[in-house]
Design goal:
Largest interface: A-B, 28 and 28 residues
Radius of gyration of chain A: 24 Å
Strand content of chain A: 5-15%
Distance between the termini of chain A: 62 Å
CATH topology of one domain in chain A: Arc Repressor Mutant, subunit A
Oligomer: homodimer
Helix content of chain A: 55-70%
CATH architecture of one domain in chain A: Orthogonal Bundle
DNA sequence: TATATAGTTAGTCAAATGGATAACCATTTG
DNA sequence: CAAATGGTTATCCATTTGACTAACTATATA
């Protein structure tokens, strides 16, 4: 329990690599086999496999094997966690900016009032 | 040129650590000095400083020093890059799902027609 | 059944990461 | 000016990461 913390670690970590983001982009347009995923990259298969496993443990990709070919597909719920964290942060940050702005406006009003009433 | 690729690496990488995400969360509610940021963590100052530097090179945080205290603040443009990548991916992925759905519906219609016309 | 195909395991290696300590500025404060 | 405060540098260390090769397993295919 509370693994979801680590899960965010792994999801963000998984996305911190251009090869893996490229794999994600490829999978966004449809599932693919390991071989298909490997082809565009100048990289040995085992290295690429490791990337796929990283994406899987990050909860971003899932795969299943039938016969000798393993088919990978995107797991949108994984990206959801990442997006949630980001929007949460932005919410906090924007709320604070709003308070700051409100405060600034109130200061301004006060200043104007003071001026009108003869400093 | 094309450093923005590496920049995404660094931004995602920076967020792949709970300490650094906590720092981000703290900064979302307002700027803070290095010492203030350090206090909640059971960690030596230099270690924490390193985290701050990682966030800075990821473009997520900026800081300036006056006197002997360095004040850190969030740099929302950094998160923007990350969010952009995510929404871009989701756009591609959703577009594909839409096409898929449209295709499925057309298949269904065809089947119904066939049935009506006597198999 | 022999061969080719598609992945997988195991093991090596250099570089990067996350943490620590010790010693060192530089600016306040007493 | 002496001491305390806030941060910084320089090293060090264990672990993780990203890539490789070699050897292996399991399924198709000829």
């Amino acid at each position: 329990m509370d693994n979801h913390l680590y899960q965010l670690d792994r999801a963000f970590g998984a996305l911190a690599d251009p090869t893996r983001r490229a794999i994600m982009a490829r999978l966004a347009q449809g599932e693919a086999s390991v071989g298909e995923l490997a082809r565009p990259f100048d990289m040995a298969l085992p290295s690429l496999m490791k990337h796929i496993r990283v994406l899987e443990t990050g909860g971003l990709v899932e795969s299943e094997k039938q016969g000798r070919v393993r088919t990978c597909r995107l797991k949108p719920s994984g990206l959801k966690g990442v997006e949630n964290w980001l929007t949460e942060q932005r919410a906090i940050w924007e709320a604070r900016l709003d308070r700051l702005e409100a405060y600034a406006t109130s200061l301004e009003k006060k200043a104007r009032r003071k001026k009108r009433d003869g400093r």
